[in-house]
Amino acid sequence: MATVAPTYPVRVDGELEPALSRWLWLVKWLLAIPHVVVLVFLWIAFVLTTVFAWFAILFTGRYPRGIFDFNVGVLRWTWRVGFYTYSALGTDRYPPFTLADVPDYPARLEIPYPEHLSRGLALVKSWLLAIPHYIVVGIFLGGAWFAWQSGDHAGWTGPGGGLIAFLVLVAAVVLLFTGRYPRGIFDFVLGMNRWALRVAAYAGLMTDAYPPFRLDMGAHETSPVRIDADV
Q1: pLDDT confidence of 154, banded at 50, 70, 90?
Q2: Strands 107-110 and 225-228
Q3: Beta strand pairing call for 225-228 and 2-5
Q4: What distance in Å separates the CA atoms of residue 120 and residue 52, rounded to the nearest whole number?
Q5: Cβ atoms within 10 Å of 2's Cβ, excluding its own
Q6: Helix axes 65-84, 33-60, angle to 10 degrees
Q7: CA–CA dist 151, 60 (Å, integer)
């Protein structure tokens, strides 16, 4: 019998730039400061609007569309800045200052609007059901993720000592000396970022689909996989 493994509704893509600068990554922390300042305020707004959306879901079973679009935009902006900086170092193209999707930017994030969300799940998703994923994502992101969860910062704009940070540093050193970004490291880093962003969307009540315990590596989300199994 054939079954289909569906794609997760949070779509995260990142296209590795073929000719990255050997040295620009050394100063991207400085170049990204304007974005980090904006993201601090955007994530404060994200938290507040998510609280409002939580009440709306409890009473109506719907996520207010305007708030949903705004919060998707915050995740999208965060992913573009992370992809440019130390969550991936996948491009030297400076991120745009916009919540909207930019089709020709190498890092993209899309989440389809849910017409209905479970009122019961809204009560337990972010603090109980997502705990196993928090542990995994904590390994990926290190201190940055735990700081966000504890409320010490407004949001996540990059790794803070976790596995992603270590592998991106390795890739950066290789890039500095060879001019090439190891493709295997890039694919693995993209998979970890994809996992983290899926969990962020789930914890933000933007989908009822439980994130898979699956490392979908590579630049682009895969199409649904057809699996043949004997019965």
Answers
A1: very low
A2: unpaired
A3: antiparallel
A4: 16
A5: 7
A6: 150
A7: 28
| Sequence-ordered alpha helix ranges (H) in the chain | 28-31, 33-60, 65-84, 119-122, 131-141, 143-150, 163-178, 183-203
* Residue 6 per-residue DSSP state: P
Position 142 scores a pLDDT of 84
Distance CA 72, CA 123 (A): 21
Residues 6+ apart with CB under 8 A from 103: none
The single-letter code of the amino acid at 67 is I
CB within 8 Å of 55: residues ≥ 6 apart: none
At residue 17, the 3 state secondary structure works out as coil
The pLDDT tens digits of the residues spanning 94-124 come to 999 999 999 999 999 999 999 999 999 999 9
Are the CB atoms for 124 and 48 separated by under 8 Å? Answer: no
